[in-house]
Amino acid sequence: MTATGTFGLSSEARNLQWLLGNLVEEVPGVHSVAVVSSDGLLLLSSDPDIQNNGSGNASGNGSGNKGASAPAAAPAPPRGDGPRGSTADLATIVSGIGSLTIGAARLMDGGGVKQTMVAMDEGSVFVMSISDGSLLGVHAEPDCDMSVVAYHMALFVGRAGHVLTPELRSELAKSMEGVR
Length: 180
Fold this sequence. Notes:
Distance between the termini: 20 Å
Number of strands: 5
Radius of gyration: 16 Å
Helix content: 25-40%
Order of helices and strands: HEEHHEEEHH
Oligomer: single chain
């Protein structure tokens, strides 16, 4: 996570961005992370392209690079139009999964949805509710340790839940306007 994506933000917003960056950098197998508001707006992103210049075009290798000392990988093949696999897509998916599971819980009289996990052949998506109705979404490798991912997500939610005030949500949404 580079500092250029945090210029002009309050200390609370910078702290949340730092926590989000740590989630990607410290948890093995995590590719990208997004925080989405209850109305589906992207509030925070682990995608440096989105944070730094408002572009939704990911480099193709995700945010999963864990250090600069790793050998350089071959360039990723072109992905076509749009930010396929980027945090912008993750935000859309998280919002949709959140709406679907909340609706299902209402139909089943199941109470509030705490977390959702989708396991696929080539990846996993985790969605966890934040106290204000926002959602934390994580895209990870299929063989990641799900309990470790869920634990670190719960830590983020615990730290972010009380800080994510309406004022901070508004500030974060405005900072992400270049993405939309």
